[in-house]
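does this look right to u?? F0G version
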Amino acid sequence: MNYKTIIEPFRIKMVEAIRMTSEDEREKLLKKAKHNLFLLKAEDVIIDLLTDSGTAAMSSQQWAGMMIGDESYAGAKSWKKMETTIKDLTGYKHVLPTHQGRAAERILYGCMGGKGKIFISNTHFDTTRANIEFSNAEAIDCPTEIGKKPSSKHPFKGNMNISKLISTINKRGKENIAGIILTVTNNSGGGQPVSMKNAKEVSRVCKKYNIPLIIDACRIAENAYFIKNREKEYQSYTYKKIAQKMFDLADGCTMSAKKDGIVNMGGFLALNSDKLTEKCRNELIITEGFITYGGISGRDMEAISTGLQEVFEPDYLQYRIASTTYLGERLTKMGVPIMLPVGGHAVYIDAKALYSHIPVDQFPGQSLACNLYLKGGIRASEIGSVMFGKKGPKGELIPASMELVRLAIPRRVYTQSHVDYVIEVFQEIMKNRKKAKGIKIVKEPKFLRHFTSHFKFI
Ligand code: F0G
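got this back:
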């Protein structure tokens, strides 16, 4: 018998209490946090959907590994284990450990980039873009047209726009393109997957023009799930085999293990090129640590080795994608406008459509994020004009292309009843949608304003 209920494929061995709060209490707490959810105390949040990064629950196997972590400065057993796991998974010749994804990006793009250089991606994640720009290079996004439309369905909305990729290479000169980056899944583009067909086409273009291809592999296991279930050719492949096939198309990867490594801290960089590796290793030693630990402790390297294997288990991946889909489908049924189809690690609400009466310069996404906290103690993040909006010559807002609110689901942390609670809170949000107020910024820093700005309801 095939039962239709997909259960969490784990038992809970350790629990962390959630402190319940009332709406009156949350009103005071939000005021104190200047209506910026990053400034709240985590203990004042009931369901924390701010990010899926570093927020996972580790398995008993991973915790057991923590006890046998080898903390030797050089050549630790735990490093050998992590290196073997990553070489087996990616097939790349060299592995460099880093404390998280952006450290791998800073080292790699610092070495590959520089003034006059250009990187092209399906969508650069914001730390990737920041590290490229920090090296004085330029980052150009080439998402597909359909990927930019929240309500239109396509199985692989995270794909690279191949014709735009080719025309950009030709326009800017192939000698100026330092690298092409394929982000899987495409986080900033809505957590949407990239097909193997698209990855193959990108790889073909890279080979033709002799440009290195780098995979941002943060969520490559989740991406493999979508390929197996949406691309006929790969139905009989294991998830790991699909990921290996994708790594095979590229020259290297960066990975934040805080996502599909199912750990709280860690990352790496893996490459085939001896020359580039040597350059990166020098950087690694200066800023992260010796080449056999990077910025990670031995116990965390043990947890990464195990996490990178557990993440490809079919029961885990089925549960993982089913829980995100469950939330997305219920919200759609209630009429909540979301980015479709539902992605892997998060559900993205189209706040501009939900609060259509709030103009973009009154930040509908920030308003929704605040209301989710007020009504239910849920913490989500605005991915719209607060995060990506720019200032025009007269100080006017040049809005982001979309006003989204991301509900990111931490791995193995919340059960179905937590998700049902989130759905119930949205019923309240929908009832009061017409009464929702806009938001204004009362204080903002120069850079990355979403982290520390102060806001007020209008
Ligand atoms: N690349 C992608 C696609 C990411 O989503 C992230 C992080 C990084 C690189 C950087 O990794 O945080 O370990 O330095 N994304 C987190 C998020 C922060 O909430 O989506 P990191």
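The domain at 61-310 is CATH 3.40.640.10 (Aspartate Aminotransferase; domain 2). idk if thats expected tbh
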